[in-house]
Amino acid sequence: MSNDRVIIFDTTLRDGEQSPGASMTKSEKLSIAKSLEKMKVDVIEAGFAIASPGDFESVKSIADSVKDSTICSLSRALDKDIDRAAEALKGANSGRIHTFIATSPIHMEHKLRMQPDAVIEQAVAAVKRARNHVADVEFSCEDAGRSEIDFLCRIIEAAIDAGASTINIPDTVGYAIPEQFGETIKTLIERIPNSDKAIFSVHCHNDLGLAVANSLSAVQNGARQVECTINGLGERAGNASLEEIVMAIRTRKDLFNIETNIDPQFIVPTSKLVSSVTGFAVQPNKAIVGANAFAHESGIHQDGVLKHRETYEIMSAQDVGWNTNRMVLGKHSGRNAFKTRLEELGHTFETETELNHAFANFKDLADKKHEIYDEDLHLLVSDNNSGQFEDKYELVSLKVMSCTGETPEAEIVISVDGKEFKGVSQGSGPVDASFKAIETIVHSETELTLYSVNAITSGTDSQGEVTVRLDHGGKIVNGLGADTDIVIASAKAYLHALNLLGANVVRAHPQAGEGV
């Protein structure tokens, strides 16, 4: 590989999905993978094939369908993991097995309960077994950020000799500081005799808010693959953000003197897709993809931008997909325009029934608001995909009374397995009353741990996107609801979460640790 290019390795579908409540269906994962392929992401880590039958099927589906990106499956340094990953990747044009084992003293002693020499032996055996299946093998030193440099040199040299062509140095717990982490990468490349036979990669977590800074420091010191996620999604405080990594390298080409293959015009559409699928709203001031990323409130800034954009903007909003090729649909738009625009956004329908259902929802929305934007379409399809299993609960009607000086009251009718039930309750507000009215019927014994409202577009007729996170005995799900009426959107989100619990669409974290 040329030393003037950084490989972008996206792990939204694996590490990103390990965010509590961020579980995705197979078709949602495939939709995101196709959007990543359009963006020209080099490597897509599609999942952890051994973790569950659902993860296996997702990896297999993506490997069979996505042809322009390398498709990767994570595996522990265990024979059964590696063989399962290889089976899922059989249909890939370009497949990679990513195997890992912990290398820090604390992990080896307390988690693996293995001596260092035994860890090296197991790592070598895993890489060799993976190389028997695929030509492209990546090896990761889990918790490398807290590992001893001498031991890292030993195990990495052995892994490269065994056939690993990519070596990943993860900051698993987000402990590193940029200057120190960059020096670690430089030292490893200089000290390991066969380092020239592998690409060095980094996978940084954001516990101290330094994941992007650590990744970029590593790139400046010789790393040529960065593992990252859309919107910085991931466990705990998340991962390095793909959009920030890519645009930092692109914007500061004078400093980095390297490039990526990424087509940045697909960054914002992919961000919106991931947000709508997971229910994790993007904060307005998020770099690159936040709603305010290119907004200017200060009069001085506005005046400067109007005179010469570069006075206060270091990159173009259009370059990353804001308002690019934007087609506004309305109630007079036909099925073909609807289908075509969704395909441009990365959504496809497996059956005519799915298309018809989504189009009917589109027409219903078009009767409520004058113009329908891409953000609305992402939500429509996300809602359509949520119906892949039989819903136990469906909203029939909702009536809310909220007057100044009086306690709000909600009267709701929901269908439970096809039979209608009515619930009435009061609450501290119309949403609280609605949720309590639902509970008079379902008695779910869940705990509401998150309630979030996000306006999808501007204007008073904007759809409100509501995310509801429920915890039921440790099972965590995110329900998503959207409507021009925020109270109805809230009820939809609550029922969606209950349906996910009923269908057991939850993420059980694989592996004894947290992966890389």
| Distance between the amino and carboxyl termini | 24 Å
Determine the mean pLDDT: 87
pLDDT < 50 stretches: 296-309, 508-513
Shape: globular
Strand order of the largest sheet: 1-2-3-4-5-6-7-8
Q: Tell me the major beta sheet.
A: 8 strands, parallel, barrel
Strand share of the residues?
15-25%
| SS field, number of helical segments | 17
> Oligomeric form of this entry?
single chain
Q: Can you give the helix content as a percent range?
A: 25-40%
Class computed from helices, strands and strand pairing: alpha/beta
The total strand number stands at 14
Binding site for Mn(2+): 15, 203, 205, 239
EC number: 2.3.3.13
Cofactor: Mn(2+)
Region (Regulatory domain): 394-516
Q: What would you say this structure looks like, in words?
A:
The chain is an alpha/beta fold. Helices cover 40% and strands 19% of the residues. The chain has 17 helices and 14 strands. The strands form three sheets. An eight-stranded parallel barrel has the order 1-2-3-4-5-6-7-8, surrounded by eight helices. Strands 9-10-11 form a three-stranded antiparallel sheet. Strands 12-13-14 form a three-stranded antiparallel sheet. Helix 3 runs parallel beside helix 5, helix 7 (178-191) runs parallel beside helix 8 and helix 14 crosses helix 15. It is globular. Pfam families: HCS_D2, HMGL-like, LeuA_dimer. Catalyzes the condensation of the acetyl group of acetyl-CoA with 3-methyl-2-oxobutanoate (2-ketoisovalerate) to form 3-carboxy-3-hydroxy-4-methylpentanoate (2-isopropylmalate). Pathway: Amino-acid biosynthesis; L-leucine biosynthesis; L-leucine from 3-methyl-2-oxobutanoate: step 1/4. InterPro entries: 2-IPM_HCS-like, 2-isopropylmalate_synth_dimer, AIPM/Hcit_synth_CS, Aldolase_TIM, LeuA/HCS_post-cat, LeuA_allosteric_dom_sf, LeuA_bact_synth, PYR_CT.
